[in-house]
Amino acid sequence: MMSAHEKVTGMREKLIYVYCVSHKEPNFKDSDLGNSHTKIFGVRVYPICHQDLYAVVSKVSEDEFTEENLKKNLSDMKWVESNVLRHEEVIEEIMRDCTVIPFKFATIFKTEENVKALLEEHTEEFKKSLEGLEGKEEWGIKVYCNIDILKTNLIKENEEIKRMEQDIKLSSAGKAYLLMKKRDGLIESILNKKINEYGQDIFEELNALSRDTRINKLLPKEVTEQKDEMILNAAFLIDTCKIIVFIDTAIFLKEKYKDKGLNLNCTGPWPPYNFCSINPISSGRDSNLFETPKGVKKEKAI
Amino acid sequence: MAEQQLAHAIQATNLADILERVLDKGIVIAGDIKISLADVELLNIKIRLLIASVDKAMEMGINWWQQDPYLSTKAREAEIEKENASLKKRLERLEAKIKAK
Question: Do A71 and B42 touch (CB under 8 A)?
Answer without folding.
Answer: yes
